[in-house]
Amino acid sequence: MALLVKNVCSSVRPWLPVAQTWDLNARRWVRALRRSPLKVVFPSGEVVERKRSPRKQPREAASEAHAQGQRPKQPLQMSPSPSPSTWEEAGLRYDKAFPGDRRLSSVMTIVKSRSFRDKQGKILLEGRRLIADALKAGAVPKVFFFSRLEYIKELPVDKLKGVSLIKVKFEDIKDWSDLVAPQGIIGIFAKPDHVKMTYPETQLQHFLPLFLICDNLRDPGNLGTILRSAAGAGCSKVLLTKGCVDAWEPKVLRAGMGAHFQVPIINNLEWETVPNYLPPDTRVHVADNCGLYAQAQMSTKASDYGWVCDRRFLKFHKFQEEDIETGDSKDWLPEIEVQSYDLDWTEAPAAVVIGGETHGVSLESLQLAESTGGKRLLIPVVPGVDSLNSAMAASILLFEGKRQLRLRVEHLNRDRTYH
């Protein structure tokens, strides 16, 4: 048995050095494959020499490493972590509406009604430019419906935190859109508060002591155009009394072209509260929208201006009362001086009342103008021509007021220079 074990051991020992020899050869072959040959000899006898890539000598490498080790280490400069500026960095997510999803239709059904806007305090904005202007002014978004992700990525990332983002088909937006060419994005915002809004700095620098009061304006297009003129003229504030169309109606927003976020707008006011939103010494003037009647008052003869008693005069009969005993009518219309619109009327903070084309100015506006020493501003028109459009009359008066205020400032600066 001992002899058998001895024979087995003796037969195993020779294999160990063979295994080690094969392992060494394998390593050599691997190193050979990694080397770049100096010469390549082809079977035809052609010899191609290759230059060895320059390598640093061991001593040079050691000395360079030693020199680098002695250099003072520069402190590692950590760049401040920037705030998330991209969609991915902010970790924003969006939902994708699948067939049968009624979130868009349910919102669009109710958000276009004035009662919903008043009760829920939410408005509808459509279009990339209008939405961008609203976000810049500090309006608070609630929900965005969009057809392409690029439309959302164009908006400021910091304004989208906590906002519901829902991707829908463009056809769905087109079905609910009021635009001729829908832009593929609709936003639901909280109704802006003029006190919390951040208006453009350039707009604030050009604000004038000029105010606009809208009285019984019912046409959305006219109101939107008037708001654009108010922003362009540099009005400090726009007041809308009860009876006017809602300033945040989609049609008014479209016609305003972003003016809602450039000038403070105060909606749905009672006439008793209007003076609270004006400076103490403000004179309230009334835009005359029955020019021929006013021209007749300025002249001893109505025929001088071609004025006749027609339907435009009938609206003033509501300010008359009839004596039951004598049958005589007593005129109790507030007496307000009439003057041409291009004469000076901006000697104090001035407010202009613009009435609607159908009902004209209200009795309350005339009483306010009388109590503040205001006037009826007449824009002369050619006899036979009906009264001007409300938006056109407002634009003429506001920019005339701006011209007068600018001239007043120039005169004051000139007087200070001479003295």
From TrEMBL:
Residues 124-195 form the RNA 2-O ribose methyltransferase substrate binding domain. It comes from the Eukaryota. CDD domains: SpoU-like_RNMTL1. It holds the Pfam family SpoU_methylase. Residues 47-63 have a biased composition (Basic and acidic residues). Keywords: Methyltransferase, rRNA processing, Transferase. Residues 46-88 are annotated as: Disordered. Gene3D superfamilies: 3.30.1330.30, 3.40.1280.10. GO terms for cellular component: mitochondrial matrix. One of its GO terms (molecular function) is rRNA (guanosine-2'-O-)-methyltransferase activity. Belongs to the class IV-like SAM-binding methyltransferase superfamily. RNA methyltransferase TrmH family. This is Mitochondrial rRNA methyltransferase 3. It comes from Ictidomys tridecemlineatus (Thirteen-lined ground squirrel). The gene is MRM3.
